[in-house]
């Protein structure tokens, strides 16, 4: 479905955990390491496939600090508000566009990037990013209140009456599907390890490696034959 030279990376995790930052850093590091891939790095924000009327941090849903707003059956607390079918169609189209032999990478980042089973099966690596709740709330306040001018009360309300329970009930359980877990948010050293793990998947990197060292050379930064994908059904925690 993706094509032989298209690599899909999923980055999921909690609110304000650093998913976009990690996706951007990952794209930048891949650009440095894979020759000629700059125009074929595609970052997809899962928010683009969300029904805006049902966002878990939507002001209309959480405009008061009242526990009565917490209703588990509400769609704004469920992953069903995201159109995964359309997302998968867009990913397939990206991978099919352009020259067949060109390396391409698609990085999907968002709260529920690891939720959909078919999407997980399509992917080459699944990353879960988290941090302790206090750290994520501080980042959230810094981003939305200080940088974007939102009301502090709205952010706190969204956290208390939506995001906290959503993280516990729906987002955190997707952690078990991850190949790599980053427990302290987006960290560049962890990103570089991920890049090292996926670089052999690209045609151009294999050609360059064989040109420099000869065919069949394994990456010296990982044990021989070890991969980050689903070869062993295990995850690595980068801490």
UniProtKB/TrEMBL annotation:
A GO term for molecular function: kinase activity
Pfam families linked: PRK (PF00485)
Ranges of residues in domain Phosphoribulokinase/uridine kinase: 96-187
InterPro entries: P-loop_NTPase, PRK/URK
Gene3D superfamilies in alphabetical order: P-loop containing nucleotide triphosphate hydrolases
Source superkingdom: Eukaryota
PANTHER family assigned: URIDINE KINASE
Name of this chain's protein: Piso0_002167 protein
The species this protein was found in: Pichia sorbitophila (strain ATCC MYA-4447 / BCRC 22081 / CBS 7064 / NBRC 10061 / NRRL Y-12695) (Hybrid yeast)
